[in-house]
């Protein structure tokens, strides 16, 4: 039974994201979600009370995947510069892929950005302590710089452009960067 519930929930989330992408967040309604997911409205309401709660659940699903990636990078340890590069890549790709999605609006309202900021600051502090990145600017300031610089990934035309933004950001963090 649990597998069935999970499959229905996933179908609802997928249908909502698809409808929001196709028609815009404001035009999504519960009837359309139910039809697109292949469930009755009664079934849909057993899972979610409204479209906003579906979007929040989708946000949590996406963030769980990203956080899992971030934590696996952190847990793997190793070279602090490589860790930093991987964390910035994960963040920039998420910004690039989801900047205009319904999820982006939910992300702005949640505490997810603060969590990312705290996570990145820990990685930057470790890299600074290791001498991998500059130490003339506090890790908290560098964190804000990175997040704002990589916000440009939202307008990137390709993943290659996102990669270049990450490289540029890393270059600005280098211990030997001009002062």
Fill in the keyword field for this structure.
single chain, elongated, mainly alpha, Tetracycline Repressor, domain 2, 9 helices, Arc Repressor Mutant, subunit A, 179 residues
Describe the protein:
With 179 residues, the protein is mainly alpha-helical. The protein is built from 9 helices and no strands. It folds into 2 domains: 1-49, Arc Repressor Mutant, subunit A, CATH 1.10.10; 59-179, Tetracycline Repressor, domain 2 (Orthogonal Bundle), CATH 1.10.357.10. Helix content is 75%, strand content 0%. The relative contact order is 0.10. The radius of gyration is 19 Å and the shape is elongated.
Give a short overview.
75% of the residues lie in helices and 0% in strands.
How would the global form be characterised?
Answer: elongated
The CATH class label of the largest domain is Mainly Alpha
Per CATH, the superfamily of the largest domain is Tetracycline Repressor, domain 2
Compute the separation of the termini in Å: 61 Å
The rounded Rg comes to 19 Å
The name of the CATH architecture of the largest domain is Orthogonal Bundle
Which fold name corresponds to the CATH topology of the largest domain? Tetracycline Repressor, domain 2
Protein structure class: mainly alpha
* Sheet with most strands: none
Number of strands: 0
């Amino acid at each position: 039974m649990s597998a069935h519930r999970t499959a229905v929930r996933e179908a609802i989330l997928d249908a909502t994201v698809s409808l929001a992408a196709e028609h815009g967040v404001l035009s999504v309604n519960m009837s359309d979600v139910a039809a697109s997911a292949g469930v009755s409205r009664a079934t849909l309401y057993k899972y979610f009370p409204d479209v906003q709660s579906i979007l929040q659940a989708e946000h949590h699903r996406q963030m769980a995947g990203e956080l899992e990636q971030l934590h696996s990078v952190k847990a793997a340890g190793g070279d602090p510069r490589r860790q930093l590069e991987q964390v910035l890549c994960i963040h920039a790709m998420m910004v690039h892929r989801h900047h205009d999605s319904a999820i982006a609006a939910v992300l702005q309202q949640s505490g997810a950005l603060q969590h990312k900021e705290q996570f990145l600051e820990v990685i930057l502090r470790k890299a600074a302590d290791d001498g991998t990145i500059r130490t003339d600017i506090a890790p908290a300031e560098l964190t804000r710089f990175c997040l704002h610089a990589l916000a440009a990934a939202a307008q990137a035309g390709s993943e290659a452009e996102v990669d270049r933004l990450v490289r540029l950001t890393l270059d600005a963090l280098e211990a030997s960067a001009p002062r």
